[in-house]
Design brief:
The structure is a single chain. The chain is an alpha+beta fold. The chain is built from 5 helices and 13 strands. The two termini are 48 Å apart.
Length: 275
């Protein structure tokens, strides 16, 4: 479990941990967010004078970054959540919720290579107060109370990795991104320098509409991606047919042509039906 030291008023015996396998994606495509459960192990601070400085944990916030490249993903919602620390090794759990957008999720996927490497910058606010004193009021029993002596901020950075399997199975679906399947098409970009970028752009639009649940527009953009490539591929196949030296290219293009032709017919049938 990744762990880091959190200094409170110079006192170093405080820890913050994250259970990576408990990180979840939530909210779907409408309001995607990453939920990061944190565990704080906190102890009251001992001053140089020997006095014990107690404190209230008031607020926790965080900023999430990709490690490579160093890109900010988002900031958590900051909420008032007081927790009093009076002794040693008190355990306090807090759930950071970091809102995202579909655009940022796509950028994360573009940058990710296997496991996703992250950095969480944690920022906390605490209220320090002196050792509780016994006060006697005129009517009733003696009570113990403390007096606030100041406010401090305690910060740390926590580095951790989310395994690829957990990210795909537990986080992405909750973000509305769904499980993805990579299809490799043996179609070199140099063969269609003008058409290929347009096709990729159409597929990006199709993926965005799929994540938003608009399947009619998804299919329409898939067709827009396929049709120009299909026409150019027919010309490409005719050109290489007369060149026996590149027989392997002909075979490769033939397989690609057949695959695209079948996919084109399937999407044409879908868009011709009522939904």
């Amino acid at each position: 479990m990744p762990e880091e030291t959190l200094r409170v008023s110079g006192y170093r015996d405080n820890k913050v941990r994250v259970e990576v396998t408990e990180i979840r994606g939530e909210g779907g495509p409408v309001y995607p967010q990453i939920a990061v459960p944190l565990e704080f192990v906190l102890s009251a601070a001992e001053e140089r004078s020997g006095e014990i400085m107690f404190y209230d944990f008031l607020q926790v916030s965080g900023s999430l970054f990709l490690q490579n490249p160093a890109v900010k993903i988002g900031d958590s919602k900051s909420e008032f959540s007081p927790y009093r620390v009076l002794s040693s090794n008190q355990s306090y759990t807090y759930r950071l919720e970091i809102p995202l957008t579909q655009y940022r999720i796509e950028r994360i996927e573009e940058a990710r290579r296997g496991d996703i490497q992250l950095r969480l910058d944690i920022d906390t606010s605490v209220a320090l107060y002196n050792k509780p004193l016994r006060l006697t009021i005129q009517i009733g029993e003696p009570i113990s109370e403390g007096f606030v002596t100041g406010f401090k901020r305690a910060r740390c950075s926590l580095n951790f990795a989310i395994p690829q399997s957990h990210w795909i199975d537990k986080v992405l679906p909750g973000l509305g991104y769904g499980k993805t399947r990579i299809i490799e098409i043996p179609l070199p970009e140099k063969a269609f320098p003008e058409i290929f970028p347009q096709a990729l752009d159409e597929l990006s639009h199709a993926q965005r509409y799929f994540n938003e649940g608009d399947y009619d527009k998804t299919v329409a953009h898939c067709r827009n991606a396929i049709e120009p490539v299909k026409k150019e591929l027919e010309k490409f196949r005719e050109q290489i047919a007369s060149d026996t030296e590149y027989e392997w290219v002909k075979t490769l293009a033939e397989e690609t042509f057949n695959w695209l032709d079948k996919l084109y017919k399937k999407t044409r049938d879908l868009t011709s039906k009522s939904h």
